[in-house]
Amino acid sequence: MIERYKSLIDLIRSSSQPAQLLQIHAHLYRASFIHDPYASLCLLTSVARLFHHNLTYLRRIFNLTRNPKLNHYTAIIRAYSNSKFPHEGFKLYREMRQRGISPDALSSSLSTKSCTKMSWLFGGLQLHAKILIDGYQSDSLLLTTLMDFYSICHKSDDACKVFDEMPIRDTISWNVLISCYTRNKRTLDALSAFDTMQSLEFDCKPDQVTCLLALQACTTHSGKLEFGERIHDYIERNGYSSIPNICHALVSMYSRFNRIEKAYKVFTTSANKDLVSWTSIISGFATNGHGKVAIDAFIEMEESGISPDEHAYTAVLSACSRSGLIDEGLMIFDRLLKETIIKPTIHHYGCMVDLLAREGYLKKAYDLILSMQVKPDAKIWRTLLSACRTQNQNHSVIAGNVVEHLVELRARELGDYVLLLNIYSSLGNHDKVEETKAMMGEKGIGLSSDCSTIEVNRKLYEFFADDISHYRKTEVYRMVEEVGQQLRIAGYDGDGFDLHSEKLAIAFGLLSTNPGSTIRVAKNLDVCSDCHSYVKLLSSVYNREIIIRDRTKSHSFWLGRCSCNA
User: Fold this and answer.
1) Per-residue pLDDT tens digits for 429-480
2) Within 13 Å of residue 177, how many CA atoms lie on the same side as its CB?
């Protein structure tokens, strides 16, 4: 009997097929071993491993277990914490405590993970209190799970408190802290943590995950190219440069900062160029306005034996859109529809709408949206609305129809109505201007401040349209006046005295940075056509690369050109 028991236990542990495990379950039942605590635990663990998509069977086995122990609860809570039903894991944790079974650090950690998956703040707070009562405030793994919970619930200050209370801070806990900062848009704190963990006080070495998280933080911040380059140096010194995810992140970062030559160098030196690698570099070429090069890379990828997926098609269609390659874009889109099994997504249609609209085919773009195989979202309608503003023809009817579609989608962003107001205003249709303003009032949509930020010497400065609050306002306005005079000599005939926030931020950048250095600005609204022309000419006259990240895209101005080719 003992030999048979041991044999069945060994079979349970080594089982790799669900059908095999079902047979073993039947043997356990017939041999009356099913109620043995160790045998039932082994079965429960193996069922959780092989039947993770069928938790009904797992729950049935657990419910038939007589007097389940802590390990039984831990096994099933783990399964639920990794499933679509994390609330069941939390309920089992409560049931376990009600039955007088004290949780250990692992079961508490898994229950916290269940709350994290639900973003359930109240449940997680209850668990945190119980963890302190149970005396597990020194368990690093459990505290790291708590940090992640607070991060997901957008309670970054509470996550930091947990981190500060940890007796031992290893690389994993630092990684969670950096991830928490990045997720909660505290980019500068995330990058500061990367430096702090390596200081003499903590002496903790970043691993490949740390580098990946720090690169992602750099990519989300408009002024952290130098920090990203420093991370790149660290990656090369520590032998992480051959790791695919690291290479992809480096390509994305350099592309984001308009350093496509460095992105391409990372791509060419990577040993294993997979589909993600190719898509990253094609997307990089697209972002930086190198449409034909992106198409060549797409063709080269196919010739190397790698078939494009929906993301690769999005990248190459985006390249066509940004570079105005209408014939190439139409051909690639037609091929996507007719020669592949890939279903066109909202992103593919978005690229084509942008391409047609940029080239002045607004009616075709509008008809394409109406014929889409997927439901149009607010973003695709906004793409068309923005084009109605930039084209030099009367497209007020299409613009009005687009806004109606946006209203139907309950998308009521200020920028949509501002664009419509600008269209009516440029046509001299003052009745429509007043009508639109009245409609905005009825819907409770007010005009918000036009705001731009610029980072100089690791400090962030904020400017608003017609801002007079900055401590160097006299110098800034003097510089704006000087720039206007220089641009008019060079042929600028726009409204240079319309002081949108980016003009003030750029003037401050000219005052505060070295000649020839790049000026990087982030703006909360779209750059208007006048400011776009203004900055294009400024980049040539002052020999500066100026990068503006607005509400919808990134513009890289250099020598009188913009990466968006507008």
Assistant:
1) 667 677 777 766 666 665 556 788 888 876 778 888 776 777 888 898 889 8
2) 27
Backbone angles phi, psi at 454, to 5 degrees: -140, 140
Give the model's pLDDT for residue 457: 78
523 DSSP β-pair partners: 452
Greatest C-alpha distance within the chain? 100
The tokens describing 30, both together, are 């017939």
What is the pairing mode between strands 546-549 and 519-523? Answer: parallel
Please give the Cα distance from 307 to 290 (Å, whole number). Answer: 22
Instruction: Give the model's pLDDT for residue 407.
Output: 64
What is the phi/psi pair of residue 79, to 5°? -60, -45
Q: Are 242 and 271 in contact (CB under 8 A)?
A: yes
pTM for this prediction: 0.71
Which residues, at least 6 apart from 8, have a Cβ–Cβ distance to it below 8 Å?
24, 27, 28, 31, 33, 39
Amino acid, res. 536:
K
Q: Which residue has the tokens 């641009």?
A: 487
Provide mean pLDDT across the span 269-283.
Answer: 93
Residue carrying the six token digits 């619930």:
153
Burial class (CB in 10 A: 0-12, 13-18, 19+), 115: buried
The CA angle 226-227-228, to the nearest 5 degrees, is 90
Question: Which tens digits make up the pLDDT trace of 330-345?
Answer: 999 999 999 889 999 9
For residue 388, what are the contacts with CB-CB under 8 A and spacing of at least 6?
357, 362, 395, 396, 398, 399, 402, 419, 423
Query: How far is residue 80's CA from residue 517's CA, in Å, rounded to a whole number?
Result: 53
For residue 329 the two structure tokens come to: 């874009």
Rounded Cα distance, 432 and 283, in Å: 40
Residues 68/107, Cβ–Cβ less than 8 Å: no
* CB atoms inside a 10 Å sphere around CB 548: 25
Contact predicate 368/356, CB 8 Å:
yes
Which pLDDT belongs to residue 8? 62
Say if CB 182 and CB 217 are below 8 A apart: yes
pLDDT band at 310, cuts 50/70/90?
very high
Let me know how many helices (H) and strands (E) the chain has, helices first. Answer: 29, 6
